Amino acid sequence: MRGTPARDALDGAITAIAAAGCETPRLDAEVMLAHVLGVGRARLLSDRELSVEGPAVRAFQNAVRRRAVEREPVAYITGTRGFRRLELDVDRRALIPRPETELLVEAALELEQGARVLDVCTGSGAVALALKDERPDLQVSASELSEEALALARANAERLGLEVRWLHADLLDGIPDDFDAVLANPPYVADSERGSLAPEILRHEPAAALFAGTDGLAVIEELLCQLAGRPRVASVAIEIGAGQHTAVAQRMRTAGFGHVECRSDLAGIERVVLGARRR
Ligand SMILES: C[S@@+](CC[C@H](N)C(=O)[O-])C[C@H]1O[C@@H](n2cnc3c(N)ncnc32)[C@H](O)[C@@H]1O
């Protein structure tokens, strides 16, 4: 029996995903079908002979159900997400790396040759791994409170063949004081914003990766407090939420980083705060 032409399968999926209220139904359907068929997205449109048949029928139906009914993010359904030059494995153990977090990596690319860097709150390992990939001269370590997320990060490192030292820790607790620079994309969503988050985020991504107290600054404040007692750390870069830059810059200065600057993401939102100690 012939299968369903891929274009027809796509049309049906787009209708179902759009009806569920997802923002990018065509993209979602294309990425999921390309994943199920093991082909590139371009081939879905260019190859008129392509059809969905055999086990792929059930696999695609299942993917569309997860997306449309459960509102699961596409990256968790396909199990992968591109970040900088890497294709990372992702699942519910860790936050899906966001495009704006690539700014944190960009900032770290400016570090001195051979610098010792710690990526705190590493999640899937995205920042640490992308940095090691693009700057193999750096000595990269990464830490995380969730053992489950850390296991995912380690597995990503092994598969990609990238050497990073992995540490299980609550922020800097128990971590050796031998770093020149600290990077972090910590949780920074205010508890009160819970109701405004998309179902993809709220229902599926780990709450511990998102929320940080009444103003979203609890984890950043604690990290900067700990960094105040570590004068050997010469620079810090922290990803923040919209509108948090003034408060974070102030706390960074108080922690001893006399030179502070902010960098904006493509949407014009101040997204990364950088601090350097005046020597
Ligand atoms: C916003 S996610 C960022 C993950 C990853 N860096 C990325 O950009 O995709 C924050 C991460 O911080 C971890 N985390 C939360 N509180 C922590 C703490 N006190 N110490 C270490 N890690 C923590 C969470 O488990 C989560 O993986």
Radius of gyration: 21 Å
CATH class of the largest domain: Alpha Beta
The CATH level-2 architecture of the largest domain is identified as 3-Layer(aba) Sandwich
Strand content: 15-25%
Small molecules bound in the structure, each named once? S-adenosylmethionine
Mean pLDDT: 97
Q: What profile does the largest beta sheet have?
A: 7 strands, mixed
Distance between the termini: 74 Å
Structurally, the number of domains stands at: 2
CATH topology of the largest domain: Rossmann fold
Say how many strands there are: 11
Order the strands across the largest sheet as they lie in space. 7-6-5-8-9-11-10
Overview features:
279 residues; Rossmann fold; two-stranded antiparallel sheet; elongated; binds S-adenosylmethionine
Overview of this structure, please?
By secondary structure, the chain is an alpha/beta fold. The protein has 2 domains: 4-70, Helicase, Ruva Protein, domain 3; 91-276, Rossmann fold (3-Layer(aba) Sandwich). Helices cover 39% and strands 18% of the residues. The chain contains 11 helices and 11 strands. The chain has helices at 6-19, 25-37, 41-46, 55-68, 74-78, 102-108, 126-134, 147-160, 199-204, 218-228, 245-254, and strands at 4-5, 51-52, 80-83, 86-89, 116-120, 139-144, 165-168, 181-184, 235-239, 259-264, 270-276. The strands form 3 sheets. A 7-stranded mixed beta sheet has the order 7-6-5-8-9-11-10, sandwiched between helices. The longest helix has 14 residues, at 6-19. The chain is elongated and about 70 Å long. 39% of the residues are buried. The mean pLDDT is 97. The protein binds S-adenosylmethionine (SAM). S-adenosylmethionine binds at residues 94-95, 97, 101, 121-124, 126-127, 144-146, 149, 170-171, 185-187, 208-209, 219. S-adenosylmethionine is lined by residues 94-95, 97, 101, 121-124, 126-127, 144-146, 149, 170-171, 185-187, 208-209, 219.
